[in-house]
């Protein structure tokens, strides 16, 4: 009984030692990509109108876009970059040809994005070596290799985190004159970085949020830049 009690004390002490070695994730302004500022139409707003995200009118979509608010700010960024007129706050219909035919647009082309998949997540355990954890615990609790077991358990988790943004999307442009889709382009985001420290110990999330916003916004701006150039070269 006494041996079991001592083993438990040793285990708790080991767990405390391992936990105390974990620091908060270290992220700086240099880790945040700059937000692009390269409008394709510097003199005037482009011929495109942005009406929002196809998924947004569903209950599931509303929850999704509330979780990731940087999507909701994208229309304003498009308009500020002179790429498209932001009408995402005004369009309330579903994303169908019937609705588009009745919609009174301000531009010839109306556009929207279908978010097929999107994850913005962290992983504090991606680098943990489970075999080293088990060996460290067993060596420590048996008392045979405490000097080896404790460092082994600590080294099993190198105190690193992975931040990843990954998704698939499709940009559609509808021609109100021809009443058909004239541009449909898929694009992806697959961005991951390794940082020292643990995300769950982070207290100031501003830089992490800014990093996510800029990565997503830049990918969407690139997609709209491509669409704008296509429309400029399109023959009526």
- From the alpha carbons, calculate the radius of gyration and give it in angstroms: 25 Å
Helical proportion, percent range: 25-40%
Overall 3D form: elongated
Number of strands: 5
Q: What does this molecule look like?
A:
By secondary structure, the chain is of the alpha/beta class. 39% of the residues lie in helices and 24% in strands. A hairpin with a 4-residue loop joins strand 4 and strand 5.
State the main characteristics.
236 residues, 5 strands, 7 helices, 5-stranded mixed sheet, disordered N terminus, alpha/beta, elongated
Task: Please summarize what this structure is.
With 236 residues, the chain is α/β, with parallel strands linked by helices.
Helices and strands in order:
Layout: H1 2-20, E1 48-53, H2 59-67, H3 74-80, E2 84-86, H4 97-102, E3 109-123, H5 130-142, H6 146-156, E4 160-175, E5 180-196, H7 206-232
Parallel strand pairs: 1-2, 1-3
Antiparallel strand pairs: 3-4, 4-5
